[in-house]
């Protein structure tokens, strides 16, 4: 186990709080070792010295980089807060609450909070912070966990109005026991994995003893994600009340569930059959240069209208390797789509469970996802995209009878794409933060009865 | 001479740049020793270790204070930038450019500037910075000044289109020789006063030798203020171009002229006679408690409608001392105004030259100013204020035949007051920053011909 460390000093503590939140809210994968990232227009590097399953990561000095990746100086908390605010505003649509005049910014909070010595825009209840600071070894942590589940969590769960699993999760679990476990792990007092396993055991016993709470505790034990509160990256955030006073109102988002132990095995992506007029085939990679399919995908990806959204205008050799890599795994299948005998577009079909989207919403094991590019410019804008999306979604649902949803995640700023998914029958279910964009989670659900 | 010092490290340099600019742009008086100030909602303290006649002050650590004036921690530059932006936005009207959506903030500049290692939102030309860094003693400074005036300043002045004194002043003088002199003074290389006297001598020689530049050089030698460029506190500031890119566009403002050696002596404030129906008398301070006039002013100042704008709802003893102090000096005269035999309001008449406004615009020696409060609530809102203001302005112009202007400086947010001045014949000439507000500079000019 790596012992988590905090560098001395309030400023590092403040930047670390912000960085942890930004990483969680943008669903950015974290691993021990060097980490480079871009927040708004600010490029940063740090070392992850403690990689936490609950997101309570520990960092070495967090440095601002110049244009050539050279460290300029240690990032100040207010600078990082400014970058986070600019980033969140740019990700969100112009009419989102966070972009409203008078919504304030994280900086307004910080200017207000610093004289009060407040460090976290969404601080935990003080008694939990006290526990996290005072518990001194693993045995004491286990005793605290036991008393917390019996004396506090169980009564609160039994008293919660059934149905509101997301609200209950944020209030009772992610901002309760899980946050404390993370702080103890970073302090080096416990192995988080041990305490998480103990918590899961206790929750299983609770669910068995009290069937009336299974609706919530079962969710905690099995859901791929759990609801937490965001303070940096939700388009619905505001930092000022209508009255003008500073008030950070957290908004819900989903984080990976560290209590879930078993991930069901699902087969790879099925190849759908599309409707009349359409054809679909996996890309063929042949020979040293990849062959004609690779050349075609490479050409499409370098067309301006595709490149601006996909940002993958790579050389042909890189596309050859990318496509060969996808074909060798179970995550996604790259395909070429034809219409009336002519190749017009590229789709990637993927299992959500194996995709970055798995961190973003409570997917079902068989959920499938789709990325799409109409490569031929003259095939755009006459409903071809939405017709193709409907054909692909219906084809996938037919090909995997256990799949209940086909999803996609276009950038919220890509109104044409969001509109095409909508026209194809996808519903906009949520807005999710990813490392470089906010995406509209678009969901095409299997019709409720028959087909 | 106090040797200016800069604490080691970029962050202190950055906060110092911002603090210097904020002090200059809000016309805040500075003297060596402790300095407390409030920027937006942020309360700060520092020690002024070098008090510069050109505004190039040097500071000790700049600390954030908590609610009980205890130091919390050293202010980060980005935090101070955030506070300055919030302050500038709050001072300005909602429809000012700085409050426009997309105008950006000083923080946007800082996030953009830090990777470029830029420190000042309105940096000097690089060759002048190099001079300010490299000159090593007073003799070398004098030689540089000589060559600068002959080789650079004079050609530039002679080539400038006559008439635009404010533009020429900022471009050639305040952001030229004066800035370099300040930097050399803070470095301890020169006594600024010596170099300023030498510059004034050279400018006098230039004006004598080249009558065609007297319009500009004469202004530099005699004007009470000189134009500089603001980056923190102008309501017309924007930090983003319409295209969205970061671009700090400085806006003109006036600073005290350190080249002006003689301040003409002017008599104290004359007591005007007002028109029919009006009366005006200086406040009488009598006896231990001040007597009935002091009591009256104290009562008015504690009425809500006056207190909200004057912020002087003091105890009666404090008002007695304040009024006695004013009556003992030549700066201002406190008066009670009557209408049709009834005391209705309070005015303070002042010589601009002796007032804080003297730092804010190029006043003439005999300019007079007025503060007004209608103390009796039932005398408000029927044109009484504007009628009184016109009567006072005309009375002052009649009482001092050398006075060409009567001025006032209501808060730009006090629309009722700004409107009353306008109705009374005052023109809105400028918006000026003061330590706790942006004021509309309202000017009642003597009619051009006769009277």
UniProtKB/TrEMBL annotation, chains A, B:
What is the superkingdom listed in this entry's lineage?
Bacteria
Taken from the record, one Pfam family name reads Acetyltransf_8
- Domain annotation N-acetyltransferase: ranges: 283-447
Does the record bear Transcription in its keywords?
Answer: no
Q: What Gene Ontology molecular-function terms does this entry list?
A: N-acyltransferase activity
Which InterPro entries does this entry report, sorted A to Z? Acyl_CoA_acyltransferase, Acyltransferase_MbtK/IucB-like, GNAT_dom
Query: What biological-process terms (Gene Ontology) are attached?
Result: response to antibiotic; siderophore biosynthetic process
Q: Provide this UniProt record's keywords sorted from A to Z.
A: Antibiotic resistance, Transferase
- Parts of the chain that traverse the membrane: none
Q: Which pathway does this chain act in?
A: Siderophore biosynthesis; mycobactin biosynthesis
**PANTHER family linked to this entry:** LYSINE N-ACYLTRANSFERASE C17G9.06C-RELATED (PTHR31438:SF1)
Q: What does this protein do?
A: Acyltransferase required for the direct transfer of medium- to long-chain fatty acyl moieties from a carrier protein (MbtL) on to the epsilon-amino group of lysine residue in the mycobactin core.
The protein's name is: Lysine N-acyltransferase MbtK
Organism for this UniProt entry: Saccharopolyspora shandongensis
């Amino acid at each position: 186990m790596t012992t988590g460390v905090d560098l001395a000093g309030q400023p590092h503590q403040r930047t670390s709080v912000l960085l942890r939140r930004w990483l969680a809210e943008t669903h950015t994968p974290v691993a021990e070792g060097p980490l480079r990232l871009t927040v708004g227009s600010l490029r940063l590097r740090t070392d992850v010295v403690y990689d936490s399953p609950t997101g309570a990561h520990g960092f070495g000095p967090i440095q601002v980089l110049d244009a050539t990746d050279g460290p300029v100086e240690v990032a100040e908390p207010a600078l990082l807060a400014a970058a986070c605010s600019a980033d969140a505003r740019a990700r969100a649509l112009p009419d989102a609450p966070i972009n409203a005049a008078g919504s304030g910014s994280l900086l307004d909070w910080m200017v207000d909070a610093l004289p009060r010595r407040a460090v976290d825009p969404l601080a935990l209840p003080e008694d939990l912070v006290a526990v996290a600071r005072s518990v001194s070894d693993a045995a004491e942590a286990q005793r605290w966990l036991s008393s917390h589940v019996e004396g506090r969590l169980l009564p609160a769960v039994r008293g919660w109005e059934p149905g509101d699993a997301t609200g209950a999760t944020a209030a009772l679990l992610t901002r309760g026991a899980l946050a404390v476990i993370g702080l103890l792990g970073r302090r080096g007092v416990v192995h988080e994995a041990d305490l998480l396993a103990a918590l899961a055991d206790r929750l299983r016993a609770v669910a068995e003893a009290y069937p009336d709470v299974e609706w919530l505790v079962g969710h905690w034990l099995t859901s791929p994600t759990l609801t937490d509160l965001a303070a940096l990256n939700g388009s619905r955030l505001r930092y000022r009340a209508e009255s003008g006073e500073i008030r950070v109102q957290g908004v819900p988002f989903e984080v990976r569930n560290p209590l879930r132990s078993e991930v069901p095995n699902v087969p790879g992506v099925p190849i759908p059959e599309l409707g009349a007029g359409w054809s679909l085939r996996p890309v063929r990679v042949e020979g040293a240069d990849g062959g004609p399919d690779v050349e075609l995908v490479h050409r499409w990806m370098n067309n301006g209208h595709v490149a601006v959204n996909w940002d993958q205008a790579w050389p042909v050799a890189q596309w050859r390797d990318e496509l060969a890599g996808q074909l060798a795994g179970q995550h996604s299948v790259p395909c070429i789509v034809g219409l009336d005998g002519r190749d017009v577009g590229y789709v990637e079909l993927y299992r959500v469970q194996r995709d970055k989207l798995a961190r973003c919403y409570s997917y079902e094991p068989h959920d499938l996802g789709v990325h799409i590019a109409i490569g031929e410019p003259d095939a755009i804008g006459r409903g071809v995209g939405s017709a193709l999306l409907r054909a692909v979604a219906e084809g996938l649902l037919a090909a995997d009878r256990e799949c209940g949803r086909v999803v996609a995640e276009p950038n919220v700023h890509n109104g044409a794409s969001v509109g095409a998914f909508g026209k194809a029958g996808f519903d906009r279910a949520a807005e999710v933060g990813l490392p470089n964009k906010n995406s509209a989670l678009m969901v095409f659900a299997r019709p409720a009865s028959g087909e």
